[in-house]
Amino acid sequence: MPDLQATAEYLSTGANRHTAVADWSQSGVLAFGANSNICLWTPSASSHVGIAGILSGHKDAVKAVKFLPPTEGGNEVIISGSDDKTLKLWELNADHATGQCVQTLTDHTAPINTIAILKSRNPSTPTLIATGAADATFRVWKYEAGRLLLLSTIKPTPKFFPLTLALSTLDHGDDVVVLAVAGTRDIIQIHVAANTAASLDFQLQATLTGAGSATSCA
């Protein structure tokens, strides 16, 4: 009887059902949470084999995935949040199919629902990242020298669980940072902070009403 060999012609899987669970890189890589893993897929790849790689390390469902802005000559970097209450920072290899976890953060004390990223217009100013979790906090970090550093922790009043975040700046500079937050109440909060090297002291500036029930997409 001749030897028989099986080869994978195409690999596919379903993504976790959450609005923040997938993101595209500028190079055309799609990263998305599938159970406790992050799957990597390049639809334009000539090989057409489907999922090219899997990043494993979370211990529960991945709910939020974001690519950090690329740096010149550097590898692509992903930040992910999970029901296991951790944020993980991943550095992809040049093949866009493999990578390694380079940092795990345990500051949140409940499942992480959403991640937002703000790339600075000034190359000397770090990228900012906001994360929201079911511990009724949202936290703002800076990405510098390949690491995430916590700058600010905000506990909204009235209490709610953040489900979606957006970061921006006023006008064309980076001096003032605006953070919009929505979640398990029918409001959207607008927080503003002066962008300094040492910290970000966010202050609630406006509360928008009339959003209906819980808001999970902004």
Question: What brief labels describe this structure?
Answer:
mainly beta; Methylamine Dehydrogenase, Chain H; globular; 0% helix; 218 residues; four-stranded antiparallel β-sheet; 48% strand
Low-confidence stretches: none
Q: Please state the average pLDDT score.
A: 90
Give the N-terminus to C-terminus distance in angstroms: 60 Å
- Residue share in β-strands: over 45%
Structural class comes to mainly beta
Quick one: how many beta strands? 16
Instruction: Please bin the fraction of helical residues.
Output: under 10%
Q: What is the gyration radius calculated from CA atoms?
A: 19 Å
Q: Give the SSE string.
A: EEEEEEEEEEEEEEEE
Shape: globular
Protein name: Elongator complex protein 2
Subcellular location: Cytoplasm; Nucleus
Keywords: Cytoplasm, Nucleus, Repeat, tRNA processing, WD repeat
Pathway: tRNA modification; 5-methoxycarbonylmethyl-2-thiouridine-tRNA biosynthesis
